[in-house]
Amino acid sequence: MAKKEQKSKTSQRKEQRKREQDYIRELETRIEEYNPKNSNAVFFKDLPISNATLRGLKEASFVKLTEIQKNSIPISLKGYDVLGAAKTGSGKTLAFLIPVLEKLYRENWTEFDGLGALIISPTRELAIQIYEVLLKIGSRTSFSAGLVIGGKDVKFESERISRINILIGTPGRILQHMDQAVGLNLNNLQMLVLDEADRCLDMGFKKTLDAIVNNLPISRQTLLFSATQSQSLDDLARLSLTDYKSIGTLDIVKENETGASATPETLQQSYIDVPLQDKLDTLFSFIKTHLKNKMIIFLSSSKQVHFVYETFRKLQPGISLMHLHGRQKQKARTETLDKFSRAQQVCLFATDVVARGIDFPSVDWVVQVDCPEDVDTYIHRVGRCARYGKQGKSLIMLTPTEEAGFLKRLASKKIEPKKLVIKQSKKRSIKPQLQSILFQDPELKYLGQKAFISYVKSIYIQKDKEVFKFDELPVEEYANSLGLPGAPKIKIKGMKSIERAKQKKNASRSLMALSKMNEDGEPENIDKSTDEAKQETKVRTKYDKMFERKNQTILSEHYLNITKQQANDDEDDDFMTIKRQDHKLVEEELPDLIVPTSKRSQKKALSKKASLSSKGNATKMVFDDDGQAHPIYELEGEEEFINKGSAEDQKKEFLAKETEVMNEVDIEDKQVAKEKKQEKKRKRLEMLRKEIEDEYAEEYGINEEPENEAFLGTGNLSDDMESDSDDDSRTKKEVSYKRNNESDYEGEYDDNIIEMEEPNTLEDLESLTAKLIGN
């Protein structure tokens, strides 16, 4: 029976595998016969794609095709390289994710085949969004997907990257895993996808992307998608695109020739002419009059975003405020994206890190406070609203020096925003409030200085000098508009150094480290002198970098004083310097010392041997190079140890010393125990004596201070008290004398009996005899 069941299961698996192979062959036939030009496809089910992908799309509420999806997906399914371009919000993400899933499905891809598709995104936020969309539409498939971006745990990613079929990430982190991850196999890669390809191919990611592409197999399919596509032959040759199909790029050119705009038709675009020093006043007034809207405010640098966000929080415009820029931790960036996506009435201050590809639902306004560097950046920014045919509005603030030049650039792409005039009744100045806030909060003043410097530098490095005129900037007026008392001094570097800094910012850390190695895998400074090599290879901590910078915090003057003091100390030739010389001690000013009262404590305090007896044998300590103390045997060399004798002899010697110390301590402990025992016995006898006296006094009615002096002795009360305190032996004799004569007091009291103190000397005996003869 078991064999029959096993055969039936085997036959079922074979039949199922055969049906899948037949279905895949049928699917490939449909793809070859499909002609997108003669097709009237409207829904995803009209395309030649698998049932698993269709079910995933339906469950994710993707039913109807967009123009870029309708034109590009059939071409990608046929195996051609694709260069795709379409307006923002037109569904480019599905245009490359569906071909990726279909390619791996038709190849019967499993986890043992390695990495099948690599998707590269220029920003972390866009990579996260692509990954989330892939999880939704690929829920019915058996492929594994992974996300690798900066700010995440590299070790966690490396342990799982070997089992990934579809990998999504940013260029820097992908290159890092290619250099470090052992299990990452790229030999069987089927597809390479570049989302926002023009950004991935620019100078910032050039070296990183070249290093990635050089490690990929040439026989692969490549898909490039963006809203503003680059068709540079050099860029395409770097990616091995020779026989490719352009989708959407020619359509955009035709639309431009016929007068159509490169932006969505449902987008209402406008601009206002604002002097640089009035931008923050205008922005605050705009927010106050649009409290029921969801808006994104774009600024040119992260320092400006941080400053405007913190100051507007103090001013409380009456709407929820958020900020997002590239210098934040990844966790904070992800949380901000999630909160902004779910909010309805909110204002987000952001840099261009969210200008590309991010799908924010129901954004009402996109406000560009700072002019973008080019028209492509403008198109990507305004594309965050009016997505998928919905309504949206955009506003850009242009200074008088930027207005003519940038409007001319927009007109070349058939973009003609309408000019708006600000109503003076709605305008409000916040300059006095900003000055007050910065005066009270030094940290905000520091942020204001950084924001000012970053904006001026951003204008200086712009390539389009017809739009961005650095020499005509009203720096003093702009500084006053930020609440600063004056314009901070700025040190402008050369253009070449700025370009190198820009490339270094986007370059991979691992690639930079490898570039510093020579052919033998050693640092380049290996041939230099020892001092120079040590100086160049010295590890610089964040504190070293902090002290090297000026104006690094609000306490910059304090830090400069510290570094100045350190410099003065370094200039001193002496190895050790005396910082204080008034070390004379005045005995009258010293506190009183507590002298031990007991003889045993005094002896232990004055005797070195007695003080060390309870601590065992003294141990000699030796300090190492780092200043740490160790017992001498820890740092003792092998030769020194052998010279002292055999290990057994040293052990016996050590035990003998410890035994001697313990014997001395035992003698002292026995003496202490004996004294304690005697003291305890004395106290017990004293208590017994008092009890006998109390019983006798109660029986014969004697008061505590009896009138009969002969009962107590020959002396008075004060003499007896002194004798008790000064002579313990006398007290013991009296107690024993009375205890021996207790039998004399049994029965009735006899008046003829006279009690006298026991004579101790010859004089006492003669006195007693005289008294008895006299009586």
**SS class:** alpha/beta
Number of strands: 16
**Any idea what the CATH architecture of one domain is?**
3-Layer(aba) Sandwich
Radius of gyration: 47 Å
What would the keywords be for this entry?
775 residues, alpha/beta, Rossmann fold, 50% helix
What would you say this structure looks like, in words?
Among the domains are: 27-257, Rossmann fold (3-Layer(aba) Sandwich); 267-481, Rossmann fold (3-Layer(aba) Sandwich), CATH 3.40.50; 495-564, no CATH class. Helices cover 50% and strands 9% of the residues. The termini are far apart. Helix 3 (67-77) runs parallel beside helix 4. It is elongated, with a radius of gyration of 47 Å. The protein is built from 32 helices and 16 strands. The protein has a seven-stranded parallel sheet, sandwiched between helices. The chain has a seven-stranded parallel sheet with strand order 10-11-9-12-13-8-14. With 775 residues, the protein is an alpha/beta fold. The model is unreliable at 518-538, 550-556, 562-578 and 704-750 (pLDDT under 50). Residues 279-438 form the Helicase C-terminal domain.
Summarize the SSE layout with pairings.
Blueprint: H1 2-33, H2 51-59, H3 67-77, E1 81-85, H4 92-106, E2 117-120, H5 124-137, E3 145-148, H6 154-160, E4 166-169, H7 171-180, E5 191-195, H8 197-200, H9 206-214, E6 221-226, H10 233-238, E7 244-247, H11 249-257, E8 267-273, H12 279-288, E9 294-298, H13 302-315, E10 320-324, H14 330-342, E11 346-350, E12 365-368, H15 375-382, E13 392-398, H16 400-412, E14 418-419, H17 431-440, H18 442-460, H19 475-481, H20 495-506, H21 509-515, H22 530-537, H23 542-548, H24 556-571, H25 599-606, H26 608-613, E15 621-623, E16 629-631, H27 638-643, H28 647-700, H29 709-712, H30 717-726, H31 728-740, H32 762-774
Helix pairs in contact: 3-4, 4-5, 7-9, 13-18, 17-18
Region (Disordered): 1-21, 515-538, 598-625, 698-752
Biased composition (Acidic residues): 698-708, 743-752
Organism: Henningerozyma blattae (strain ATCC 34711 / CBS 6284 / DSM 70876 / NBRC 10599 / NRRL Y-10934 / UCD 77-7)
